Amino acid sequence: MASSLRRSVSPLTRCIGQLKSGPVTSSRFVSTGSASRLTARPAPSSTFGKRPYSTREQAARDRDAIGVGLLLSQLAVILGVQLIHAQQPATWRAGVLFILAGGGLYFYFESEKQKVQERRAKELKSSKSGRPKVGGPFSLLDQDAKPFTEKDLMGNWSLVYFGFTNCPDICPEELDKMGVVVDAIEKQYGSDAVKPVFISVDPARDSVDQVKKYLEDFHPHMIGLTGAYDAVKSVCKAYRVYFSTPPDTKPGDDYLVDHSIYFYLMDPAGQFAGAFGKATTAEEVKKQYDEAVQEWKEDHPGWKKGTAPIAAPTAA
């Protein structure tokens, strides 16, 4: 019995010694059907350097966790089988030991695999939906002639629409829709849950006073922004908004203005969370807002409204 145990444990001892020398992955685990030829090669040294934890490093560690679990499970099976085949009086004890060890390792392996699958599903969802580089630094004036920058939006959710006060129908319709969304959000989350923002793409005609007068017909919490042509052009570029206002126009000139017809949902870190076109209903916008808020809470536990969190590093 003792000699049989030594023969059974010998491969286990060698493999555990190899595990200590470096991480292994499931792809490096080689089984030839014989315990004496069971090998586990150490992984090559890391070349990532000292930098934030990346998706590639996470994937490598996930593979290592699964590889170790699979290796231990197979070793338990080999050890148990050899103990049973020894045909000694204590074979039933060996069988019980085999079942307990194998069962424990199986549940450990399944638990680790589940964690990896959940993490990968979340990463896949993020990579599929993508996060367009929308938004960025800007400096404009609000309807009270006070300076307003992107920092004034940090720490809160915001809905941002680009238009102009002389727009005959589309802009008023979209701002009315935004107002309905804001009312629904405030009813559920509170009066400061989201900031509605209107940014003019017609700075020659949309002065501070004009914007203030125009917004009197819309949601009372609406923030109106305007500025010099270059400042408006810069914010439109940051938000990837198309507009055709000529650069050298004067307030009395007659000209046409064309622009993108949608508004953005931006998260408390100032990052893009959604875009809504003319065909999107207020109910659909509210639903996507709810989903974005839920995801935000999961990714930022303990976050307090009005505080701007540090954005999570992007995956390498």
Fold and architecture overview:
The structure is a single chain. The longest helix is centred in the middle third of the chain and has 39 residues. The C terminus is likely disordered. The chain is built from 7 helices and 9 strands. The chain has a 7-stranded mixed beta sheet with strand order 4-3-7-6-5-8-9. Strands 1-2 form a two-stranded antiparallel sheet. It has 316 residues and is an alpha+beta fold.
Low-pLDDT regions:
4-55, 124-128, 311-316
Largest sheet: 7 strands, mixed
Which percent band covers the strand fraction? 5-15%
What is the H/E order? HEEHHEEEHEHEHEEH
Question: Strand tally, please?
Answer: 9
Structural class: alpha+beta
Number of helices: 7
Strand order of the largest sheet: 4-3-7-6-5-8-9
Shape: elongated
Mean pLDDT score, rounded? 73
Distance N to C terminus: 54 Å
Round the Cα radius of gyration to an integer and report it: 31 Å
Oligomerization status of the protein chains: single chain
Helix content: 40-55%
Short key terms for the protein model shown above:
316 residues
Can you summarize this structure?
The protein is of the alpha+beta class.
Helix and strand layout, with pairings?
Layout: H1 2-21, E1 29-30, E2 39-40, H2 55-85, H3 91-129, E3 139-142, E4 147-149, E5 157-163, H4 170-189, E6 194-200, H5 208-214, E7 223-226, H6 229-238, E8 262-266, E9 272-277, H7 282-299
Parallel strand pairs: 5-6, 6-7
Antiparallel strand pairs: 1-2, 3-4, 3-7, 5-8, 8-9
Helix pairs in contact: 1-2, 2-3, 4-7
